[in-house]
Write a structure and sequence with these properties.
247 residues; binds 1,3-dihydroxyacetonephosphate; alpha/beta; 11 helices; TIM Barrel
């Protein structure tokens, strides 16, 4: 039985004062019936991990470098993230794949670095609208999954996030049938490759998830939670998603 996961990706949003949102979330949901992880910008990670230490809220990073340390100006490494008390790292988000040309091979190397630091990788995959319109969704998702996740993935070190690029921040979502098709496909690829470990890996849906659509989307087989952008910024919205996932 996979426990549902509500993961919030704050992207490049949030100042010190925004940390109050996690306190509000905790007050409203002190003993949530799903796992919660909030991924703030790197500037807030240390402080958030400190605040969340006594709470049922884990903290995550939005990216990391594939090396442990060295001359990489502006980057942060997986051991540095672990050092803050954070437990998760989002990798291969489509915004990074698009803006920085991150390849599957690079995401794979980053995943290895995250595992080596004892952290859990949230590996993002998903097709663009052009790829979807050409009927290539499963090809793309299959290729990204095979290329971005190293051998050795299991339920404790890896989460997969299916995020159709065209659904991110647009208010659009795929039909429930399409979500089911892609999540079932990812599950079968994971179990073919990792056997029982593949069955324990959580597969999140991401892209315009809100308190309004979360119930229907997460009722779909093999949807084990959500990777939430915009609706994770306010405790009230994210809390409503947490409450639904805990049902
Ligand atoms: P939105 O929920 O704002 O569409 O963002 C989804 C996302 O990219 C999470 O990583």
């Amino acid at each position: 039985m996979r426990r549902k996961l509500a993961a919030g990706n704050w992207k490049m949003n949030g100042l010190m004062q925004t940390l109050a949102e996690v306190e509000t979330l905790h007050t409203a949901h002190p003993a949530p019936r799903c796992d919660i992880v909030v991924c703030p910008p790197a500037t807030l990670m240390c402080k958030m991990a400190e605040i969340c230490a006594p709470m049922a809220i884990e903290v995550g990073a939005q990216d990391c470098h594939e090396n442990e340390a060295g001359a990489h100006t502006g980057d942060i490494s997986a051991p540095m993230i672990a050092d803050t008390g954070a437990r998760y790292v989002i990798l291969g988000h489509s915004e990074r794949r698009a803006a920085y040309g991150e390849s599957d091979a690079l995401v794979c190397a980053k995943t290895r670095a995250v595992w080596a630091a004892g952290l859990t990788a949230i590996v993002c995959i998903g097709e663009t609208s052009k790829e979807r319109d050409a009927g290539n969704t499963l090809d793309i998702v299959g290729r990204q999954l095979a290329g971005s996740v190293p051998d050795g993935a299991c339920g404790s070190n890896t989460v997969i996030a299916y995020e159709p690029v065209w659904a991110i921040g647009t208010g659009k979502t795929p039909s429930l049938a399409k979500i089911a098709e892609v999540h079932n496909f990812i599950r079968s690829r994971l179990t073919n490759r990792c056997a029982a470990d593949g069955d324990a890996i959580r597969i999140l849906y991401g892209g315009s998830m809100t308190p309004r659509n979360v119930e229907k989307i997460t009722a779909v087989t093999n949807v084990d939670g959500g990777l939430v952008g915009g609706a994770s910024l306010k405790a009230a919205d994210f809390g409503a998603i947490v409450a639904t996932l805990g049902k």
